[in-house]
Design a protein that fits this description.
The chain has helices at about 5-30, 55-60, 85-95, 110-120, 140-145, 170-185, 205-210, 225-235, 255-275, 285-295, 300-320, 325-330, 330-345; strands at about 40-45, 70-75, 100, 125-130, 155-165, 200-205, 240-250, 350-355, 355-360, 365-370. The protein has about 375 residues and is of the alpha/beta class. The chain folds into 2 domains: about 5-25 and about 260-365, no CATH class; about 35-250, Alpha-Beta Complex (Spore Coat Polysaccharide Biosynthesis Protein SpsA, Chain A), CATH 3.90.550.10. The strands form 2 sheets. The protein has a 7-stranded mixed β-sheet, with helices on both faces. Helix 9 (about 255-275) crosses helix 13 (about 330-345).
Length: about 375
């Protein structure tokens, strides 16, 4: 690779990192959306298996102080799912709160969406909130994530998340979420990406869900969060990134598990974003830092290393307030080299491992078949 090619690609990578840094600073300085009278909301929680910290996660929703009624609806494809026992425990602890277990009958290639079909049908309120089963939310969460929907121009609200882990491989993945994934989400609107939604939080109007054909319209897709946001924004509304940050748990304790999880994400992005996936290596600054070092471009390598690490620090430690990122932000260039390897694996192949199943994807992100 010639000197000038390295300079050109490093400049593009540096420009991306600078844009990401600006997006992170902007998110850090933003004030919560001002709201008036809150609307009643139905929290839809599809569950499958007993994730670590599950009870603490669902309890953090039950303890919310909100100025309007809210309900929590749980559903599982398996009526004997162990998570439902913890839901009954929550019902016993909060007998005055509307907490219901909804029988699930609908089926979809994406089993989670099949559960959501029945939960949405049972929901009583005009606002719907969907998030992953292990998400822990802070006080004031409900008020913060529903307030933007008081603006008619806003169709869906989402939120960033930080991760905690109990193993070194899990710590590594949690670091990547903080220093790579979060900045990429924040910079997306600056480069023209309007349809963004994260499974950690999705809040929207029941009427607009009906307008896009309900959850059945996305039941064939693996990336249901992205597809939901895409369809709602196509109604002429915008996606809103909330200032609130939630927390999840990285359950994988092995490097193989983390690798499979990362490859699943990569292939999901590839089939969802199409040609945009091919340009991702340009944003992986660590790759071009290494190329600059190989070609003897020490000053370019130093400058790119500085801006990459500063972006990682601001995103992880300041925006997400992630203890993992506060300690490990300086490993960002090394993460980028790992991310490039994941990108290569994501480029080749059309199957992903999800829990105990192998899922095969079509070119447009639909689930083709499932193998035990």
């Amino acid at each position: 690779m010639t000197f000038w090619v390295v300079v050109a690609l490093a400049s593009v990578a540096g420009g991306y990192q600078f844009a990401a840094l600006l997006a992170c600073v902007r998110q850090w300085w933003r004030k919560p959306a001002a709201g008036g009278k809150p609307q009643a909301v139905s929290i839809l929680k599809p569950v499958r298996g007993l994730d670590p910290g599950f009870y603490a996660a669902i309890r953090s929703h039950a303890t919310q102080e909100y100025g309007a009624p809210f309900e929590m609806l749980f559903g599982a494809a398996d009526g004997e799912d162990p998570a439902l026992g913890e839901v009954r425990r929550l019902q016993a602890e909060f007998p005055k709160l509307a907490i219901r277990i909804v029988p699930v009958e609908a089926a979809a290639p994406n089993a989670k969406v099949g559960v959501l079909i029945d939960l949405a049908r049972a929901a009583r309120y005009p606002l719907l909130l969907v998030n992953d089963s292990d998400i822990v939310v802070p006080p004031g969460y409900l008020r913060q994530v529903t307030a933007p929907l008081e603006q008619e121009s806003v169709g869906i609200v989402t939120a960033l998340y930080r991760a905690r882990a109990a193993s070194i491989p899990g710590w590594w993945e949690a670091l990547g979420i903080a220093i790579d994934f979060a900045p990429s989400v924040l910079v997306a609107p600056l480069v023209g990406v309007k349809e963004f939604g994260l499974g950690a939080t999705l809040v929207f109007r029941a009427a607009q869900l009906e307008a896009i054909g309900g959850f059945r319209a996305i039941g064939d897709y693996l990336a249901d969060d992205y597809q939901l946001a895409k369809r709602i924004t196509q109604l002429g509304t915008q996606a809103w990134m909330s200032e609130v940050v939630v927390e999840t748990n990285v359950g994988d304790t092995t490097w193989a598990g983390v690798w499979r999880h990362q490859v699943r994400w990569a292939r999901t992005i590839r089939v969802s974003r199409g040609e945009g996936y091919l340009g991702l290596p340009v944003t992986q600054a660590g790759l071009w830092i290494l190329a600059a070092l190989v070609t003897g471009s020490w000053s370019i390598a130093l400058g790119l290393t500085i801006i990459r690490c500063v972006t990682a620090l601001v995103a992880g430690a300041m925006v997400l307030r992630s203890p993992v990122a506060s300690i490990g932000f300086w490993l960002a260039p090394l993460w980028d080299v790992w991310a490039f390897a994941v990108w290569l694996a994501g480029l080749m192949g059309s199957s992903v491992v999800w829990r105990d199943s192998i899922l095969r994807l079509s070119r447009d992100g639909k689930l083709l078949r499932q193998e035990p």
